[in-house]
């Protein structure tokens, strides 16, 4: 079924559901080694959280890039198990818009992501990133629950 797809994007925020989405995407691409798998993590240094109100934006940026590196390395190690072409990306900006922009620019044709992410708010429906991506994507989106 998936052999029609050529490039799958997994937006990853290190939440349990994004881990599940990545696992599912890895299983999917195993069906055809020509399918590429791109994992995308979006950081938001411009977001001013109460607990680091005094930290300048450039320091927050460096802090976030540094914090994400071991996670990226862990994912790279996992991805090495696949014969497929795989890549990980760390991008910066509003996650929802950045993911949509990335998918378009990279001609991806399938997205696998979690319904919920890291935010503690227990909303009734989808999280805001998954909601936006489903609305705006020009390709199929698999929402993992
Ligand atoms: N910063 C991010 N970078 C990459 N993917 C993200 C990011 N934030 C969310 N996602 C993706 O979107 C899914 C849903 O998260 P989200 O919509 O943010 O829900 P919540 O509101 O519960 O945090 C996650 O499981 C992940 O796949
Ligand atoms: Mg979130």
Automatic annotation (TrEMBL):
<dbReference type="Pfam" id="PF00582">
    <property type="entry name" value="Usp"/>
</dbReference>
<dbReference type="InterPro" id="IPR006016">
    <property type="entry name" value="UspA"/>
</dbReference>
<dbReference type="InterPro" id="IPR014729">
    <property type="entry name" value="Rossmann-like_a/b/a_fold"/>
</dbReference>
<comment type="similarity">
    <text>Belongs to the universal stress protein A family.</text>
</comment>
<dbReference type="InterPro" id="IPR006015">
    <property type="entry name" value="Universal_stress_UspA"/>
</dbReference>
<protein>
    <submittedName>
        <fullName>Universal stress protein</fullName>
    </submittedName>
</protein>
<feature type="domain" description="UspA">
    <location>
        <begin position="5"/>
        <end position="145"/>
    </location>
</feature>
């Amino acid at each position: 079924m998936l052999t029609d797809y050529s490039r799958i994007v997994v937006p990853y925020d290190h939440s349990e559901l994004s881990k599940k989405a990545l696992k599912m995407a890895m299983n999917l691409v195993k069906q055809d080694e020509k399918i590429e798998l791109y994992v995308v993590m979006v950081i938001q240094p411009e977001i001013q959280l109460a607990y680091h109100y005094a930290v300048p934006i450039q320091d927050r940026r460096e802090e976030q890039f540094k914090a994400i590196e071991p996670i990226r390395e862990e994912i790279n190690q996992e991805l090495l198990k696949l014969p497929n072409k795989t890549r990980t990306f760390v991008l910066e900006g509003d996650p929802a818009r950045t993911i949509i922009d990335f998918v378009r620019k990279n001609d991806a044709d399938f997205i696998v992501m979690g319904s919920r992410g890291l935010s503690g708010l227990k909303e009734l429906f989808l999280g805001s990133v998954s909601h936006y991506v489903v609305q705006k994507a020009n390709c199929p989106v698999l929402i993992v629950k």
